[in-house]
Input
Amino acid sequence: MARLAGVSTATVSRALNGTGQIAPATGAAIDAAVQQLGYRPNTVARSLVTKSTQTIALLLPDIANPFYAALVSGIQERALAAGSTMLLCTTEGDPEREEQYLSLLRAKQVDGVLVDGLVLPPERIADFVREGLPIVCLDRDIDSTSVPLVQVDNRLGAQIATEHLLSLGHRLIAHVAGAPGLRISAERIGGYDDALAAAAVERRRTHVAVGSFTEEGGYGAMRALLAGSPPTAVFAANDLSALGVMHAIAESGRRVPEDISVVGFDDLRLAAHTTPPLTTIHQPAFEIAQRATQLLLDLAAGREVPQRLHLLEPELVVRGSTAALA
Amino acid sequence: MARLAGVSTATVSRALNGTGQIAPATGAAIDAAVQQLGYRPNTVARSLVTKSTQTIALLLPDIANPFYAALVSGIQERALAAGSTMLLCTTEGDPEREEQYLSLLRAKQVDGVLVDGLVLPPERIADFVREGLPIVCLDRDIDSTSVPLVQVDNRLGAQIATEHLLSLGHRLIAHVAGAPGLRISAERIGGYDDALAAAAVERRRTHVAVGSFTEEGGYGAMRALLAGSPPTAVFAANDLSALGVMHAIAESGRRVPEDISVVGFDDLRLAAHTTPPLTTIHQPAFEIAQRATQLLLDLAAGREVPQRLHLLEPELVVRGSTAALA
DNA sequence: CTGTTAGCGCGTTCAA
DNA sequence: TTGAACGCGCTAACAG
Output
């Protein structure tokens, strides 16, 4: 203990936390003792009295999706600036595991939790909020008024993507949709529909296939699309499924973008290096993460957050996977 | 408190932890009270006395690399099975931040930390081990005898990759290397050299370029290679840089694999969906993560780990990016 | 089988 | 400016 090298524990506590006045001499003595022993206060004991663990959690289905991974650095930056660390909990889309984790996190007294892509019923989540666990939702919605939400304007992004294809002269535009039942999937379909309707282009039922946001799903969806009446352009609900789409197109002997144009959504780091480089909708992942984290820290500190919905702007990034209709 | 609904706190503790014998009647009463109040023991208080936080940490440079992300699910599975959660700490390759995190993690009394790709001097890391913080290294080495290591046999993997290209008739085989100064980069260069030497193929200095394990790095390295005397095949130090390599090749008007074959390393999920699908060396990421986590939990529990080095087998996965020399 | 007592290592009164 | 005393919520040791 630093106590052995000086004064009482109370004084050490005050010195290290900058609480109260410390005589220069005793301050120096404490510093010396700390140096010598490599002393660091036990944060567990501190948490027990302060009621703050300086820990937040990120709860999401699957960190293997690079978009989720991109969120982490934004969270990390804000959290570290506030002296907090981040627990990562992956659920594999299993609602039981979501609930299990939420309950565990509450027991662990985390200061708050960031959730993304949960499938648990909103009322269950609201229960946790009611019990005093601050929760902020990022990227994907939850149907709950008790949880702030930070995300990109999905509908607008999808609309911009589709308009880009329309402006290139395409009329047979397919959509490889996200996982069924998710609001985010519906919104991207909505934006696609909006753009087609505004251009008075017929929207064929057979031109929407489910890609489920994965490489594998996009691949399967595109194969199905090619087996029917092939489109001249495809808007994929995210970059990962766009990868699968391009794979299926290449495998069928067609070329991107000469035969079929492809647009993705997310703008993953690797989108710039696919073959061909992927035209896509940029999501400000870093900013989404930072905003959501700040909101969560505010909530945890007992500050009110005035606005529930935080919508950020999507942006079209044109690369090599789209071209004018031949 | 559940105390209000029955007995003493000690009995509740025993009932909930399964320690000691509990009369059926009181057990039922406690269960009922727990249900009614939604009671969960405060793990912070528990940790203060048990000296275990049921928390481990993963310290790595950058979660945006999908290979690191793949490790997470293996860790998560083992950790959750042991009732532990995982703190994720990303360092951006900054040694100061590594030390800052390690110090913070010690203060937080984590049960142990898994490290990957640290650049901190081994002796600093050994200091933490000496202070009683269990550390296990996975994927990338540390030059320290006090830290167990779980990784794939990098040298062997690189050798297998190069041999594959040799067996296809290639003789002008370039290597896009990893970040300079890392043992893992040197080992993969070593395996490449071994294979060339065994086949009595000349290894040209100009056929090794630095790709630094990133898409961007691989892209730049391949452009440099193409500006010199172009190889007929390339072994990239990881899949991400292989993506950049394929990008540069396509941009130069050449085709993969007709003009140039490409082999990666890692076998990321997306490797199956690049254009063309990437031939690569499979790393058992899930197993590496599980083994390392188990080792760490053993260490944290005070069990001895007999073996310091755990080498897992790499495996060649042949897809569409390699072909026989024309 | 159960209650009482005593800490775990801190922050925080209240006096001095 | 500093120390003594108390308590955060829990588990462990010891009686009973």
Summary: Chain B touches chain A through 56 residues (CB under 8 Å). Chain B has three domains: 2-40, 52-152+285-313, 154-283.
